[in-house]
Amino acid sequence: MSRIGRAPVLVPSGVNVTLDGRSVTVTGPRGTLRHEVAGDITVRQDGQVLLVERPDDERRNRALHGLTRTLVNNMVVGVTAGFNKDLEIIGVGYRATPKGPSTIELALGFSHSVTVQAPDGITFEVPAPTRISIRGSDKQAVGEVAAKIRKLRPPEPYKGKGVRYAGEIVRRKAGKAAK
User: Fold this and answer.
1) Model confidence, pTM
2) What DSSP string runs through 11-29?
């Protein structure tokens, strides 16, 4: 049996879980998230605990068991604490400028600045001109927005300039050897 799927999901006080057929809806202080459970996996509530169960040991059900439990747990964590991704901007003249809670303007060495609009439920914070913090209750949406911003100017291997995740290590290459 899946070690991850077997673990119960604890529902803290202040969080409301609604099970409606294949649909799981989690409501908390940071919003509401909804997920459709795939396959034959079932989710049931036992007091303040959610249990994810599978009907048999078929390969597909084993694969979906741990995945479903993790997605449900991420929804509970998202509506209580939320998720956060930090980005660093490295390079001379590269900077981020906030234009409200859901828009930032990036100067990344192009002839024009790039404006990034956050989808619903995502907010940007710019604590320093070279740091961006992306916050939201949906883990997948936060990661997707961070990846799209990083894709605008990924870190290059020669000087290390570009947008990278906080703490990301970029392996540097040696430049041309002088004669």
Assistant:
1) 0.89
2) --TT-EEEEETTEEEEEET
